[in-house]
Amino acid sequence: MEFRLSPVLAFLAFAVAASHAALSPEQYWNYMLPNTQMPKAVKVILHPDLEDKSTSVNVGGAGANVNTGKGKPGGTSVNVGKGVVNVNTGKGKPGGTSVNVGNGGVHVNTGKGTPGSGTTVNVGGKGGVSVNAGHKGKPVNVKASPFDYLYAATETQVHDDPNVALFFLEKDLHPRATMTLHFTQNTETATFLPRQIAQKIPFSSDKLPEILNIFSVKPGSEEAEMMKNTIKECEQPKIQGEEKYCATSLESMIDFSTSTLGKNAQAISTEVEKQTTMQKYTIAAGVQKMAGDKSVVCHKQNYAYAVFYCHKSETTRAYMVPLEGAEGTKAKAVAICHTDTSAWNPKHLAFQVLKVEPGTIPICHFLPQDHIVWVPK
């Protein structure tokens, strides 16, 4: 299906978005979660270089400028003028995330400054809609997520998936316990789109042909299967006692988490000192149980832009676990323990690895570094 916006409609849509653009994602975070630290996982997705950014807004022909940054190039900027609306959340150099709306269309670039990389979206104007998802020819991991509790793991995944090591029993969560782990990072470097842009891009199985066309992805390719699987996982029915939501922007993730937990919430993520191979880790003193027995866990998905599968459960316990690796690596890992697994698929990866039955004993897992857990303070 061909999707087009007239230049006028595109300009009006993004002129409205521009009126809210003075609130950068960080500012929205601070507004919704005052005095709450942003975890590293979020910072890395927003700004891979972790540098300070500026925010500026320019409106009109000559331009009215609002700058809330620190004088450094880059940051978040919005320009609404005669020919274009530009939103740039880049890093002060070619690349970053940018949106341009006007006679030339809408352009979204979430790349890193390398020609042909990142995600490019063109909407409206003379060019219609086209998206370059980058990383053409790069292998894409399309296997099911181990954190989808309704799926049955394949034999290949049971034997070969490094996430197998992340599952353990709650009774083993104590100082001096040892586990052989490999904290992998998602090699997909997709960043958040501005919420106003993400809301305008279809995200449903019945729109898959349109989505693939928008993202210039060939049907049947690995990229197409990756996107299909992510959407399918987001559309699966929730399990008993669960609330679920797929967040396509940081703002929507914040809104879902605070609507379920309240504004007195905090976000945490696993942090590993450095990237290493699989090694034996020992749980150090200082295991910390987070408040309450409910949490919102957001798992990073493989997609052309940042999408998080978030689900809330009131039958979980969250822990911060200090780990010391045999090779000297230190980590602060987030562990989630599920106290009721009776609704999980009996062939889920955890049951096959731990040799236990659904609903019999709490099952825990560590989270990769790019996943986020929201808990009450």
UniProtKB/TrEMBL annotation:
Residues 1-21 form the signal peptide. Pfam families: BURP. InterPro entries: BURP, BURP_dom. Residues 56-79 are annotated as: Disordered. Keywords: Signal. It comes from the Eukaryota. The keyword Membrane does not apply. Residues 167-377 form the BURP domain. This is BURP domain protein RD22. It comes from Durio zibethinus.
